[in-house]
UniProtKB/TrEMBL annotation:
<protein>
    <submittedName>
        <fullName>Rieske 2Fe-2S domain-containing protein</fullName>
    </submittedName>
</protein>
<keyword id="KW-0479">Metal-binding</keyword>
<keyword id="KW-0560">Oxidoreductase</keyword>
<dbReference type="Pfam" id="PF00355">
    <property type="entry name" value="Rieske"/>
</dbReference>
<dbReference type="InterPro" id="IPR045623">
    <property type="entry name" value="LigXa_C"/>
</dbReference>
<feature type="domain" description="Rieske">
    <location>
        <begin position="27"/>
        <end position="139"/>
    </location>
</feature>
<dbReference type="Pfam" id="PF19301">
    <property type="entry name" value="LigXa_C"/>
</dbReference>
<dbReference type="InterPro" id="IPR017941">
    <property type="entry name" value="Rieske_2Fe-2S"/>
</dbReference>
<keyword id="KW-0001">2Fe-2S</keyword>
<dbReference type="InterPro" id="IPR050584">
    <property type="entry name" value="Cholesterol_7-desaturase"/>
</dbReference>
<dbReference type="InterPro" id="IPR036922">
    <property type="entry name" value="Rieske_2Fe-2S_sf"/>
</dbReference>
<keyword id="KW-0411">Iron-sulfur</keyword>
<keyword id="KW-0408">Iron</keyword>
Length: 455
């Protein structure tokens, strides 16, 4: 359990809060690029880390992210005109008195003041730097003097036809969602379905890579995985080890990249990020984005995971944009009690909505001073300690938080993985550059991009 004081540190993200100051040191998703798709298009409201902002793509194609309230009298710039200025400059013009602000927050036109006035040169809207990568508009909201380079998880070189990014609104504190992502034990319960226990062995219950279909059976067979956590320079990675029906050990490795990101286990490995970004203390976005082109030349895993399950809705399988909510608290997540009794553990038809049901049902901010934790919570405990420690250290003496991009680290080498181990095999090398499956995939990508003449 946490003390009330530490729970407040962990969950509060507004300006001036200890955690809010930590989060502002990182480049953070602000919105999807497709939310501001065209130059001169409509502005978009953005609420991020408890601040109300407006994003717009000016007539030259540059994205701005500025305070929502006009510095003059507070009218919302969301209602502003996105247009070119009188001298060829461009920006968002307030509908109240015509003051215009560019993507940097500078006031570039003040037509309601005398033509001889220089007042506009002394007026600025708060603006944050942005960087577009991987279908996301990222921003840095911390002090200018501590801004580090953009953390490239691989999106900077991702081909345009491989860019996929989505976001999903969640009505609970961001830590509740993060804790769900770092809990491999819950898949054996929350996401269970009765028929998974009867899946026939397809010959992959042996050391090596199982089929995706068989992993459902593993989760149902061993519902109390052993958790092993390994600290890393970017946060930590952990293995959830389960005994398979044939007596082997399967491991699911999940990555945690401070402060927002998880990479969930997949066969043979995974580089897709699930990044939880606080809107404010009571709401968050779940961003999913492809960070790299991921090759699988041997077709490890076979048919996709959800092809074997009863969970098949547009929500789970959506591949881009803002995901609409169909299963929400107001309709009890469309729970079917008869299905819950006879087919699935929850009776909720959508896989991701099952996660929303439990994390949102805790309330806007869960009081962790009352909880009782077990060995299955090792990764959750590690994340909390890392974040609370970072917040206290930054507040105490300015110690920079972990996993910033100012130390020459390669964020493209962070990968989750899933494999059934050989006797005595150490799971810690899986997903790393030393993993033969990774080496094979990288060589395949090189060959695909640079074919030998005559091939």
């Amino acid at each position: 359990m946490l003390s009330h004081a530490d729970n407040e540190i962990l969950t509060r993200v507004g300006p001036g809060t200890p955690m809010g100051e930590v989060l502002r040191r990182y480049w953070t998703p602000a919105l999807l690029g497709e939310e501001v798709p065209v130059p001169g298009g409509d502005p978009v409201r953005v609420r991020l880390l408890g601040e109300d902002l407006v994003a717009f793509r000016d007539t030259t194609g540059r994205v701005g992210l500025i305070q929502e309230n006009c510095p003059h009298r507070g009218a919302s710039l969301y209602f502003g005109r996105n247009e070119a200025g009188p001298d060829g400059t461009c920006g968002l013009r307030c509908p109240y008195h015509g003051w215009q602000f560019d993507a940097d927050g500078a006031c570039i036109d003040m037509p309601s003041e005398p033509a001889t006035s220089t007042f506009k040169d002394r007026v600025r809207a708060k603006a944050y730097p942005v960087h577009e990568s991987g279908g996301i508009v990222w921003t840095y909201m911390g002090p200018a003097e501590t801004m580090t380079p953009f953390r490239d998880f691989g999106t900077e070189t991702l081909p345009a036809d491989k860019v996929v990014a989505t976001k999903l609104h969640t009505t609970c504190n961001w830590i509740q969602t993060m804790e769900g992502n770092l809990d491999t034990a819950h898949i054996s319960w929350l996401h269970a379905w009765s028929a998974a226990a009867d899946i026939a062995d397809d010959g992959t219950d042996k050391p090596g890579y199982p089929s995706n279909r068989m992993t459902w059976k593993y989760w149902m067979h061993d519902r109390a995985p052993r958790i092993e956590v390994e600290n890393t320079w970017y946060g930590f990675r952990y293995g959830g080890l389960r005994t398979t029906p044939n007596g082997h050990t399967n491991v699911r490795i999940t990555e945690y990249v401070a402060p927002y990101s998880t990479i969930i286990a997949a066969i043979p490995y995974n580089t897709r990020h699930l990044m939880v970004v606080p809107i404010d203390d009571h709401n968050c976005w779940r961003y999913n984005f492809d960070a790299q082109v991921q090759a699988n030349p041997q077709g490890y895993g076979g048919a996709p995971l959800f092809d074997a399950s009863p969970y098949d809705t547009a929500f789970t399988r959506r591949t881009g944009g803002i995901t609409p909510r169909t299963h929400v608290a107001a309709n009890d997540y469309l729970i079917d009690r008869e299905v819950q009794r006879t087919e699935t553990f929850t009776g909720v038809s959508d896989f991701v909505s099952q996660d929303m049901m439990v994390t949102e049902s805790m309330g806007p901010i869960y009081d962790r001073s009352t909880e009782q934790l077990g060995q299955l919570d090792k990764a959750v405990i590690r994340m909390r300690r890392l974040l609370i420690g970072a917040a206290k250290a930054l507040a105490a003496d300015g110690t920079p938080p972990p996993a910033l991009a100012d130390e020459g680290r390669d964020f493209t080498t962070i990968r989750a993985a899933d494999k059934t181990l050989e006797e005595g095999e150490d799971w810690r090398y899986l997903g790393t550059d030393d993993d033969p499956a990774v080496q094979e995939a990288l060589q395949s990508l090189v060959a695909e991009r640079h074919p030998v003449a005559g091939d």
